[in-house]
Amino acid sequence: MATAETSRRGGLRSRGAAIGGVVPPVSLLLVAGAVGLLVGCLRSSLFAQLTVQGLALGAVYGSLALALVLVYRATRVINFAQGELAMATTYVAYQLIQWGLSYWEAFPATLAIAFALGTALQVVLIRPVRHRSVIAAVIVTVGLFILIDGVVDWIWGSNFKFMPSPFGTKTYHVGGVSIARLYPGMFAVVLVSALLVWALFRFTKLGLGMRAAAFRPAEAALVGVRVDWMLAIGWGLAAVLGAVAGLMAEPAQFFLEPTLMQPVLVYAFAAAVLGGLDSPAGAVVGGLAIGVSLNLAVQYVHPISSELQTPVAFAVLVGVLLLKPAGLFGHREVRRV
Amino acid sequence: MRRRLPALVSLVAVAALLSALPFTLSDYNVSLVAQVGVFFVAVLGLNILTGYTGQISIGHGAFMAIGGYTTAIMSRDHHTNLVVTMLMAFAICFVVGLLLGLPALRLSGVYLALATFALAVSVPELPLKWSKFLGGSGGVQSAKTVSNLWLYGAAWTASAILFVLAWLILRGRVGRAFRAVRDSEIAAVASGIELPIYKTLAFGISAAYAGVAGSLFVLATNGFAQPSEFGVFLSLQILVGAAIAGLGSLWGILVGAAFVGLLPNVSSSVPVIGSAHGRDVVFGAAVVLIMLVLPDGFAGLVVRLRSLVRA
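ok -> C-alpha cells follow
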C-alpha cells in the first residue's frame, strides 16, 4: 500500500516534466535509433527520403496517439471513436473549403468545431457511463465509431473527396535528396500543436486543474476544481489534436474518404502503447518511431509489404504489451488489492 | 427444480418456435432469421468470454474470418462436406484462440480491448498479402452453395448444440472458475484456480464459437469469403450483440443476436436517411442509446422487470 502511494505521488510530480522518469536504457535506445537513422540518411538518399516521409507520417500517428493518451489519462477510457472523430472533422474542413474558405482559414475554424464537438460528446455520452465498467464506456465509444461513420457517409457520401494541398507542391533539394514541402510541413504543424497542448497543461491554471482532475478527482473537487468540466475540456482538446491528425493525414493520402483514419487509429494505438498509455511525450515519440520504422520496413525488409503494415503494427502492440506493458515512458500500474 | 422449470419451458418454447418458423416465412425472411442464428452463435461465444470470464474482445470478427476462410478454402480445394468444414473451423479457431489467449493473459481491461481491436483490423489484411492461397481482395468462392432453408437449419442446429455445450461447460467446475476469474483474479488465484489455464481456455472456446459463426456467415453470403465482409464492423457488431444480451440469459442472447443480425438489414430501408448509410446511423445511435438506458443489457432488464412484478 505504502509503495502505491509514493509511486503515484512521484508520478504526479514527474508528469509535469516533458519526459518524466525515463530510465537510462530507453534514452540510450532512442539516441542509438536516431544515430542509426542519421547514418542511413547520409549514406543513401532513398533512405533519407523515406525517413523524412516516415517522420511526417509518424507525427500524424503521434498526434492521434496523443489524443488517445489525453483521454485515457483523464477518464481511463480508450476512445475507439477518436479516429472517426478526426475523420469527421476533416470532412468539416472540406465543407468549409467548399464554401469558399482557404485551407488555412478553414484550419482554425475546424479546430474550434472539433473542440466543441469533443466537449459535447463527453458531456452527453461519456459522463453518464463514467462510473460504470470500462466495458460500458468502451462500447459507447464503439457505438459512436459506427454512428460517426454512418453520419459522414450520409452527409458526404463515400466517394473520394479532394482538398487543396496545404503546403503547395514545392520540392526542396537538400544535398541530392529531394523532399516534398508537404512532409516537413506536416511535421511542423503537428509538433507545434503538440507543444501548445503541452504548454497549456504545464503553464496555465486550466492545465493544472485538468491534471488535478485527472489524477485525484475527489481531492481536486475538494479544493474547488470543477472536475466534470475539466474532463470535458480534456475530451475537447483530444478532439482538436485528432482534427490536426486528420487534416494532416489527408494531404499524405491525397484524398479524403470515410475510412481515412482507420489504419491511422491502429498505428496510433501501437504508438500510444509503445510510448506508454499514460505518457503524452511517449505518445509522440512512439508515433514517430512507428511511422519511421514502418516506412523503412516496407522498403527494406523483404517480407513486409504495404499490406502488412497494420498486422506489423498489431505485432508491435502485442509485443510491447508482453515485454514491457508500461511502454517506454509509461508508469507501471499499481493496483490496490 | 421449481426454479429450473420456467427456464426449461422457455427453452422448449424457443425451440418449437424456431422449428415452426421456416414453414410460415417467405424465403427472404428465412434467410434473415438464419442470419440471426449466425449471430446467435457468435454472441453466445463472446458471452462466454466477456460475460462469464470478464475479458473484453473487440476482435471476434477476426476469428469469424478464420472460420469463414476455412470453410471456403476447404470447399474450394478439397470439396469437403460443408458440415465437416464447420467442425474444422471450430477446431482451428479453438487452437488459434488458445494461442492468442496466451498474450491476452497479461492484458486486461482497456489493454485487451486495444490488442483485440488491432487483431480485428489486421486479420482482413492477410488475404491481400497471400493472395494466391487466400484469394486477395476478390475473395474465395466455395465449391458448393446452400439454400436459405439449409442455412436456417444448419445455423439453428449449430446454435442449439453450442448452447447446450455452453450450458454444460458453464454449469460445472469450469464455469465456476470462469466466474471467479471475472469477479476477482486475485481471489480466484488465492482459491487455487489456475488463472492461465482458465483464461486461455475461455479464449479458445469463445474463438471456436466465433469460428463456427464465421463459416455459417460465409455460407450465408453464397459461400463467398471476402476480406471486406470481415472488417472491423463485424467485430463491433458481435461486441454490441453481447453487450445488449447482458449476462446469462437465453432471451438476452436471442435479443442481442436479433438486434445485430436484423437491425442493419431492416434499418437500411429507413426513410429520410436513405438506404446505404441508414444502417450505420441507426445502428450506432441505437447502440449508444441502449448503453445509456440499459446498463446491464437485456438480461438486466428482465431481472428488473421481475423484481417489479414481485414487489
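The CA atoms of residues 74 and 80 of chain B lie 6 Å apart.
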